[in-house]
Amino acid sequence: MLSLKKYLTEGLLQFTILLSLIGVRVDVDTYLTSQLPPLREIILGPSSAYTQTQFHNLRNTLDGYGIHPKSIDLDNYFTARRLLNQVRALDRFQVPTTEVNAWLVHRDPEGSVSGSQPSSGLALESSSGLQDVTGPDNGVRESETEQGFSEDLEDLGAVAPPVSGDLTKEDIDLIDILWRQDIDLGAGREIFDYSHRQKEQDVDKELRDGAEQEDTWPGEGAEALARNLLVDGETGESFPVQVPGGEDQTALSLEECLRLLEATCPFGENAEFPADISSITEAVPSESEPPGLQNNLLSPLLTGTESPFDLEQQWQDLMSIMEMQAMEVNTSTSEVLYNAPPGDPLSTNYSLAPNTPINQNVSLHQASLGGCSQDFSLFSPEVESLPVASSSTLLPLVPSNSTSLNSTFGSTNLAGLFFPPQLNGTANDTAGPELPDPLGGLLDEAMLDEISLMDLAIEEGFNPVQASQLEEEFDSDSGLSLDSSHSPSSLSSSEGSSSSSSSSSSSSSSSASSSASSSFSEEGAVGYSSDSETLDLEEAEGAVGYQPEYSKFCRMSYQDPSQLSCLPYLEHVGHNHTYNMAPSALDSADLPPPSTLKKGSKEKQADFLDKQMSRDEHRARAMKIPFTNDKIINLPVEEFNELLSKYQLSEAQLSLIRDIRRRGKNKMAAQNCRKRKLDTILNLERDVEDLQRDKARLLREKVEFLRSLRQMKQKVQSLYQEVFGRLRDENGRPYSPSQYALQYAGDGSVLLIPRTLADQQARRQERKPKDRRK
DNA sequence: GATACATGTCATTCC
DNA sequence: CCGGAATGACATGTA
């Protein structure tokens, strides 16, 4: 009981405080009532006959509510270790994540970007904040369909930000539900995972274990709160850029192209660009203007905005993905990319028809800023765990100069992009399937893999089973209802403590099973107690060995039937109180005054106690060892030797005593060892699940990145078409795509070169990566 | 009776 | 070197 209180006061309380510090609501009752047999056994251990006496005596004297001076070293050790693990695992915990999200929900309606928000809320927070920055929510919630993919998917925060900065009531409700689920998930999963191992356990252990389970399954659904929805509501606006025709080579400003890219940034949700683009288009030189002047045209638009950074960041991400996957450039399969399924909302708006009327009133600046600032969150893989830090740390990594895009927009990639080898003569065609590029292979593979990836992600990461299980649990047992479902145990855990002592004391007359008694007695399990203090208590109470009658009396005095009747579920709890009793005490106990007990019951009692005794106790009794096994085992060496010296013991007795001590120590060690082993297994299990979650998250990120990449590719393709289609030779005729191609040069210009030359360079570019890989 | 599980015990190693 | 913890292997009891 005192150990239990110790757990309550130290373990549970401390952890509760810890959680409170990080803003996690802790419903102690929920955890108390959660059951997890393995951990219960780990922490409490199996039968601990050695500490039974202490447990028993303490209850008798203090009724479990006094402050016991004894320091339980191992207890502290486990508690400290658990706490440490919990603290270490805080970053992985989903409960805090959920909680933070909930707070964000409550705080964010004003739309302010709260940089002080702790981790994990970021996806929601940053997205909403950005949303506010970017202006009114115009996002098309096309990804409502994607939500089925999994809400878990969005927990990475790397996906597109949520469209809406203002949460609707449904959103809040959903968040609230998810939050509750997270809180409960721990217990729920514990039960799920270990229910097969559950069996009759003593209530104290349940209480203690329940308090300690919270770190095992903190719950993971919360991440899904940040429902970052990839929205591509853009309209595929066009832009007026006319490049002066050259002879064979026509230089285009790189910034022009980049601007075009930005204007059609696939991630931007700003479908409409309210402002005008006239300023830009007016700045664009006429056809007769020399190419060199055009390099500066776009820079004013780019400076002062984050869009180039974002864009570059995106490209870096995309390229890293390409490298990571080591995908072969496959120009022959690019059709898949362009033949996106009609149902795919992401691919619908990106075919930019060159003939599309140019909207002269589109503010390119605003468009790029709005779209890409949101994109930033989309490409922040750290958002999930480092909300504030990510936004602050990632930015500095990005060159503050728009020209740095050259490094990312390397000639390699762009050259390939701008080199559709099979470009046919119809320059006015929308980005056709016949336009391959280096990204084609990647994207094709990505698209092909997407389904399987999603399956994988769902299968390995989010655990649809888990989700459904959650649903079921919370349908029938929603929220913190574990409390009620396990109320008996929770009741017994605290209130039953005193009565349990009485029931234990009455074990001699009750038909308590040995297993139950042992399980109950393992309270304060072996190795958890301080020997000296235990000894003091024992001696102070005179319960063991020398004053058996008193001990017996104490026990009998607790045989209050009313208490048992009040707590009928404790009746089965029995305890082995004989283990720590000296043989003499046992003898006396076994022979109560004839007047009090009938002979038959007395014999039964004796038999029962005999059965309760361990072999070593029997041996000790047989050898007339004058002190208790408990002392033999738990006394420090010095006191132990001192004790031995006090008595004239035969060699056989001494040998037996030493054997008893050795076996007792080893028994405790074995129990601790088994607990540790189980603990290790459970930790490994948790680690595996964490890794699986990470894997699933990464897969989801991959899918999202590939999706974004595909969109970018489509944009680039459209832009290529657009630019190329507007090129005119000196006679005002369009260039034939079969004869000419655009190539991005290293100096930032885009050149119009003959296709033969372009093909050669493209081939060269293809070889390079392969060689590098070798 | 076979089996799984919990627990105790022994031997050994390590600190 | 001793005491004791840790642990694998085995024994035993129980359901």
TrEMBL record:
The keyword Glycoprotein is assigned to this record: yes
Superkingdom, natural source: Eukaryota
Subcellular localization, as worded in the UniProt entry: Endoplasmic reticulum membrane; Nucleus
Region Disordered, annotated ranges: 108-150, 471-534, 596-615
Membrane topology: Single-pass type II membrane protein; Single-pass type III membrane protein
Residues of the BZIP domain: 656-719
GO terms of molecular function: cholesterol binding; DNA-binding transcription activator activity, RNA polymerase II-specific; identical protein binding; promoter-specific chromatin binding; protein domain specific binding; protein-containing complex binding; RNA polymerase II cis-regulatory region sequence-specific DNA binding
Xref: InterPro entries: bZIP, bZIP_Maf, NFE2-like, TF_DNA-bd_sf
Pfam families documented for this protein: bZIP_Maf (PF03131)
One GO CC annotation: protein-containing complex
Biased amino acid composition, Low complexity: 116-131, 477-525
Coiled coil residues, start to end: 674-715
Skewed-composition ranges (Basic and acidic residues): 600-615
UniProt keyword list: Activator, Cholesterol metabolism, Coiled coil, DNA-binding, Endoplasmic reticulum, Glycoprotein, Lipid metabolism, Lipid-binding, Membrane, Nucleus, Repressor, Signal-anchor, Steroid metabolism, Sterol metabolism, Transcription, Transcription regulation, Transmembrane, Transmembrane helix, Ubl conjugation
Entry-linked SMART domains: BRLZ
A biological process term (GO) from this entry: protein polyubiquitination
Family: Belongs to the bZIP family. CNC subfamily.
Listed name of the protein: Endoplasmic reticulum membrane sensor NFE2L1
Originating organism: Bison bison bison
